[in-house]
Amino acid sequence: MSFFPPHITLLATEVLAAARDKKLRIVTAESCTGGLIGAALTEIAGSSDVVDCGFTSYSYDAKVAQLGIDRAVLQKSGAVSADIALQMVKGALAGSSADIAISATGIAGPGGATPDKPVGLVYIGIGNRVNNHSDAEKNLFTGDRSAVRMATVEKALLMLKQEIGGI
User: Which SS3 state, helix, strand or coil, does residue 31 take?
Assistant: First the structure.
């Protein structure tokens, strides 16, 4: 029995298989998901040949220390932004031997929202060393905290699958 819903487990299995076929290693850099993307990947037996490591950087200080995030950007735009999602990807790649990185930063709720950053706003970053591609995607998920976090995991896995397919 898995901690994750069957469709998430299936998606994680597909991501691992695709990465394994291309001999790619994955690193995660997570804030609002608290390590759930990495947990979904490592839920699958044998994932150690694909998953390099994961960073869970919830606070500003952790983002700066673990991922080398620019504190000035954090203070200017806040942790929930495309810029920070991209910096998280770059920091995760720099701090690992992985080929591809996924990041998530957002507001899972129920608190923490502002008028311009509502609950459910999540930026997911993706990048790889193979062709130096990186991108961040803005998402607005609905539901309670658990629903937002699980939707983020699903979207991150879909983005990983797509990124791996394009390498």
Answer: coil
CB 109 within 8 A of CB 119: yes
- Tens of pLDDT, residues 75-115: 998 999 999 999 999 999 999 999 999 999 999 999 999 99
- Give the C-alpha separation, 17 to 80, whole Å: 31
Quick one: 6-165 is in which CATH superfamily? CinA-like (3.90.950.20)
Q: Which amino acid is at 157?
A: L
**Which residues does the chain have with pLDDT short of 70?**
none
**Exposed e or buried b per residue across 88-105, where buried means at least 16 C-beta atoms within 10 angstroms of its C-beta:** bbbbbbebbebbbbbbbb
Spell out the domain ranges in the chain. 6-165
| Amino acid found at 88 | M
The residues facing 114 across adjacent strands are 117
